[in-house]
Amino acid sequence: MSTWHVILLGLLEGLTEFLPVSSTGHLLLAGHFLGFRSPGKTFEVLIQLGAILAVLSVYAAKLVRLLVDAPSDPRARRFILAVLVAFLPAAAIGAGLHKYIKGVLFETPWLVCTSLIVGGVVLLAVDRMRLEPRYRDVMDFPVPLAFAIGLAQCVAMVPGVSRSGATIVAALLLGTDKRSATEFTFFLAMPTMAGAFAYDLYKNYALLEVDDVKSIALGFAVSFLAGVVVVRYLLGFVGRHGFAPFAWWRILVGGMGLGALAVLG
Questions:
Q1: Which residue range is the domain that position 126 belongs to?
Q2: For residue range 50-74, what is the model confidence (pLDDT) as tens digits?
Q3: pTM of the entire structure?
Q4: Which ranges of the chain would DSSP assign to H, the alpha helix?
Q5: In three state form, how does the secondary structure of 183-200 look?
Q6: How many domains does the chain have?
Q7: Quick check: 198 and 46 in contact, CB under 8 A?
Q8: What pLDDT is stored for residue 14 in this prediction?
Q9: What average pLDDT does the chain have?
Q10: Minimal CA–CA distance to 122: which of 159, 162, 95?
């Protein structure tokens, strides 16, 4: 793995992980056209640790406050329970289909491109709907709503769909506003991505060599720095511009990817 490949992919991961554009889809397409291959596709999953730590660093104070308040605050306990319940479907399905996802879906670039385009159209349509939100604060999300969002997250196991995109669309259709829908994806990302990291490392650590570990460490560092920037400013951007810019980006990248596959294979 060349250093510039690692830096580029780490940058892509950090910049796209929390945007509704599919970080995995971008990484897989970039890797395909650059001829970049990692053993068991571990690099693409393990550098997500940088994005996890980016969320933790930005939301550290809020997380500490939640844990401190939980013993005496029913609202804090309900929110923690809601995030954990939302995480469960992805944990169960991801573990059961891990081999198929990594061995088949991750190796199908045309599927990634198609998912990007379809997801972009869906995101654009939902963004233009005149939805009346009932929930404007993530702390008020009821547990059944969180579980439904967690079920929607499972669709993102198809690369190109986008974990954040699936959860945001589901949240909006279920009655949240754009800002709280986006913020909930940050909290849900923590157990989801940490679980994916731990499980993939457990399944594939024997495949890793010293150079692979060095590449993963560099990719992690780059994704962390880029992720911090995105997490800090994404909520404000969404509040001002909505999700249409991300939808059009998905359609553009997916269309260019299909064109490149038709020409280059």
A1: 3-264
A2: 878 888 888 888 899 999 999 999 9
A3: 0.85
A4: 3-16, 23-34, 42-46, 48-58, 60-69, 74-96, 98-103, 109-128, 143-153, 163-173, 178-204, 210-241, 244-264
A5: HHHHHHHHHHHHHHHHHH
A6: 1
A7: no
A8: 85
A9: 88
A10: 162
